[in-house]
UniProtKB/TrEMBL annotation:
It holds the Pfam family PfkB. Belongs to the carbohydrate kinase PfkB family. Ribokinase subfamily. This is Ribokinase. Catalyzes the phosphorylation of ribose at O-5 in a reaction requiring ATP and magnesium. The resulting D-ribose-5-phosphate can then be used either for sythesis of nucleotides, histidine, and tryptophan, or as a component of the pentose phosphate pathway. The gene is rbsK. Transmembrane segments: none annotated. It comes from Polycladomyces zharkentensis. ATP binds at N183, S211, E212, G213, S214, Q215, G216, G242, D243. Pathway: Carbohydrate metabolism; D-ribose degradation; D-ribose 5-phosphate from beta-D-ribopyranose: step 2/2.
Length: 297
């Protein structure tokens, strides 16, 4: 298996747990507070590394304590940070996360992630062109995402685009990426389509891999709809479940597994990830994933 390259965001998550979510103007007493590494790109990189892949992270952090924490975490997790750009004029990105009532609410401040630009991609170009799979998200500038997708298309490198946070995407970008991994809300937002979700999946066979939370994943294989189930688990924190899916899905594809089996690996990993606190806290190893994969049916 070659290397997974992630071009994306790195941040620090400021996580509060609370029995209820405050409404506008309300103050509530929370239960716990944690400072943990996050960012969709970094989460996906760590998920892939924990599942046994060699991973290269391309991104940016500020010249501050949070930036040091991000880079230290990559070192601990075995993620190569050769192409992590230090930025002096912006702070490291942060995500403010409230976990309450069985779900999470997130405010993201991109900070240095807005500096993940074409110049940085050019520095990492040879690594990207040699990758088995490239992972992208939308917490960095859209122009950069388009630039990477174009480079990968020309180099025949498969691309997974996790379109979050969702925005309307140019049709040529959708065409160039190999797989899109939205949830239903994101699926409608990136296409500007409020129609029936099954009709949308039919238009993008084997491309839109639709995440449906505890229901698992659904896609259209050209002949029929395929549902790949999630595991039934006790949920502690759903933060990072989608990132875990994407990271492990990429690893399984890089190992040469067929699409349905690669999705199954991703679903199992995402299910296991929600059993512990923090986006990266519950990310499983490949050994743990294989124990639960079964025969993939």
């Amino acid at each position: 298996m070659g290397k997974i390259v992630v071009v994306g965001s790195s941040s620090i998550d400021l996580v509060v747990t609370s029995p209820k979510r405050p409404i506008a103007g309300e103050t509530v007493i929370g239960e716990t507070f944690h400072i943990v590494p996050g960012g969709k790109g970094a989460n996906q990189a760590v998920a892939a590394a924990r599942a046994g892949a060699r991973v290269e992270m391309v991104g940016a952090v500020g010249n501050d304590r949070f930036g040091d924490m991000v880079l230290d975490n990559f070192q601990k997790q075995g993620v190569s940070a050769t192409y992590m750009k230090p930025v002096t004029h912006k702070s490291t990105g942060i995500a403010h996360i409230v976990i309450a009532e069985g779900d999470n609410s997130i405010v993201v401040v991109p900070g240095a992630n807005s500096e993940v630009d074409r110049d940085l991609v050019d520095r990492a170009k040879e690594a990207i062109k040699a990758a088995s799979v490239v992972l992208l998200q939308l917490e960095i500038p859209l122009d950069t995402v388009i630039y990477v997708a174009d480079l990968c298309k020309k180099s025949n490198v498969p691309v997974i685009l996790n379109p979050a946070p969702a925005k309307l995407l140019p049709s040529d970008l959708i065409e160039k990426v190999t797989y899109l991994t939205p949830n239903e809300h994101e699926c409608r937002a990136i296409l500007g389509d409020c129609g029936d979700v099954e009709e949308i999946l039919k238009r993008y066979p084997n491309k839109i891999i639709l995440s449906e939370g505890s229901q698992g994943v659904r896609y259209f294989d050209g002949d029929r709809f395929v549902r790949v189930p999630a595991l039934s688990v006790d949920v502690v924190d759903t933060t990072g479940a989608g990132d875990t899916f994407n990271g492990v899905f990429a690893v399984a594809l890089a190992q040469g597994l067929p699409l349905k089996q690669a999705i199954r690996y991703g679903c199992v990993a995402a299910s296991l990830s929600v059993t512990k606190l923090g986006a990266q806290g519950g990310m499983p190893t490949m050994e743990e994933i294989r124990k639960h994969v079964g025969d993939g049916h």
